[in-house]
Amino acid sequence: MEERRYRTVQNFLKLRIQQGYYEVGSYLPSENGLCSSFSITRTTARKALAELTREGFIERKHGKGSIVLERRKTLGLLNVKGFSEAVGKDVSTVFLQNPVPGNWDPKINFTISDAELKKSCVHFSRLRFVGSEPVMTEYNWMAGEYLKGFCDLDFIEGSFFKTLSRHYHIEITGSDHELRAENADENKAILLDIPIGSPILHISVKFLTNINNFNIYSELYCNTKYYPIGNSYHI
Amino acid sequence: MEERRYRTVQNFLKLRIQQGYYEVGSYLPSENGLCSSFSITRTTARKALAELTREGFIERKHGKGSIVLERRKTLGLLNVKGFSEAVGKDVSTVFLQNPVPGNWDPKINFTISDAELKKSCVHFSRLRFVGSEPVMTEYNWMAGEYLKGFCDLDFIEGSFFKTLSRHYHIEITGSDHELRAENADENKAILLDIPIGSPILHISVKFLTNINNFNIYSELYCNTKYYPIGNSYHI
DNA sequence: TAGTGGTCTAGACCACGCC
DNA sequence: GCGTGGTCTAGACCACTAG
């Protein structure tokens, strides 16, 4: 079975967005434009654009066009309230451990597939601040197979997800979370600058991607006293 | 502007689902059936069914039909892992406070609109168990205006959301969450049968509905030691 | 007024599930 | 084989946005 025509158009546009050819805030070609370029009818063009909408890449505006979105905002992920999405906020990140080849860690709270375990693992960890206050430590693991050169790469605008999208065309397609309230151990207490035993929010995340058997495993530890974790979901 | 034809069909089917006329697990009329019944073309019938799919009421199965879903599973809400969705699990709920007229509580972590504040408030609270272990206390507030007779009602299968849907055709259309790790105060410690000061997960929720200015505000306190909170999101 | 997306019709052919 | 949903064409009219 050959590829659906709407998928051809959808993937063509998606690639151009990932490459930055269509920048965030700019408009895609109109439906009629796509009809001409690809020799398709509006139904098919609209289906392609509907799929990109569903995936969170664009928003359709009646009378104007299809505008390219900052995708992270549409993904329904848990976020430190007023953290990365806040404009003008004094947020920053430091690496505790730059990306390096490493081992799958038993700290990971999800089941790692055999296919992943057989591959080598890449690890990095970060400490994230609002102003001068540390609010979250973050530990990440993933199979290195698809990330040639990743350890020598700078993150695009400090964003791991943007880097995956731009350089590797890897997109997040879903995530599973587990949430726990815990007491901070000595290590976390020092990093987050709180007393040992303070309550912290432990979030285990498994990010699924468009690549089979390539998932990203993250363990997050948050001081929610002043910056709670937020999440929004709308039909 | 008159109502779109696909919306007519969509709302017709939605009402029948809410009323239980089409039960969970059963099939809606086929596309061609809807075309005949409503004198529309397949494009329009498919649009109606696509909307119901997006809203989480049905799932479309190639070669079979449109099957009615248990909607809560598709809503992307935070759940106690292995709690309400687990089959055969020994889960139960007791009311700490049956639904009663009450006052808007300052404990609510979200901003309540003036329109809501002007209305009377209905409150209830529950304690939820897995086996004999209490894992979550739950406090709920909402404007009573649309809930005539609610305080005298039994919940359908113990579910607040099912009751809202069946009796009042009120559906959840979204939710905002705020998550905090806290220490249990004496009251929560007793209810959850844990030492005072134990870390607990405090979840503040604002549920949005299909009715303007009718939101449900919930404050949840969870012992996540053995039953973490889970959440799944997939494109 | 021109261009955009939103709705809708009336067909056609294909792929999947089931008897 | 037959009914189901999935894809696609070729048109039409309408509603929104902007110059």
Biggest sheet of chain A: strands, sense, closure? 6 strands, antiparallel
Beginning-to-end CA distance, first to last residue of chain A: 33 Å
| Tally of individual domains of chain A | 2
Task: Report the CATH superfamily of the largest domain in chain A.
Answer: Chorismate lyase-like
Order of helices and strands of chain A: HHHEEEEHEEHEHEEE
Percentage of helical residues of chain A? Answer: 10-25%
Largest interface: pair, residues per side: A-B, 37 and 36 residues
Radius of gyration of chain A: 20 Å
Total of DSSP H or I helical runs spanning 4+ residues of chain A: 6
Strand content bin of chain A: 25-35%
Overall shape of chain A: it is: globular
Q: Mind telling me which CATH architecture of the largest domain in chain A this is?
A: 3-Layer(aba) Sandwich
Task: Tell me the CATH topology of the largest domain in chain A.
Answer: Chorismate lyase
Structural class of chain A: alpha+beta
In order across it, which strands form the biggest sheet of chain A? 4-5-6-9-8-7
Oligomer: homodimer
Determine and state the CATH class of the largest domain in chain A: Alpha Beta
